[in-house]
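Q: Sequence in, structure out?
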Amino acid sequence: MRHGLWSMLQLTPHLQPVEHRFSLDLNPLDLALLSERSVDIVIVDYNPVREADIRELIEKCSSYSLPVVILINSEEPELCDMALQIPAQGFLVPSELTLHELAAALGKVADGTLHLPPVFAKRLLSRARHQTAAAAPVSYGHTALTPREQQALELLVEGLANKQIARQLGISQHGAKRLVANVLSKLNCPNRTMAVAVALREHLVDRPGGGAGTRTAIRPHARA
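A: Exactly. Output:
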């Protein structure tokens, strides 16, 4: 792999390989020599067993402002996920190992831009979407609330207090308080303000001032 990559770098315009070795150990003298020889990028192949050594190498190179690019010999999702945890400045995969793609990738890194192969970018996007969907608040429709709770929610949006809600619905103040508590619980909201925001965002009620005929009529019910 090292010899193959070395040959490709020699054939790539504007790139000149300086040195290749098996060991990841770079002492201060090695780093000083690399800096003096105007090295722009360090490329290291990824091996999960040597992850600690790779991280140490990146830390050493960062003190000399040398970006490190990780070469991953497989595009297996699990291996990609592990490699992405390493704070490298770029990643290469077998599908990118053409003269054109190699030059483009290393050019981005040399310019200070993080390079991610398309397979990595898709992996990260898919993971982000999954995490967003998992963390998104539950969407509640009208069926999640009983008719009475729906009425209480609409009055909450109007800004009514429990005493006023009780009067509007013809129930006791204790009953109104219980209704409001049920609404907050079903909407997973810690307070009335959040419940109103969720109700408007999820279109559980019409916005206040929506005009005549846009809201369900609420009439007081006679006590039994």
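Residues 10 and 104 are 15 Å apart (CA to CA).
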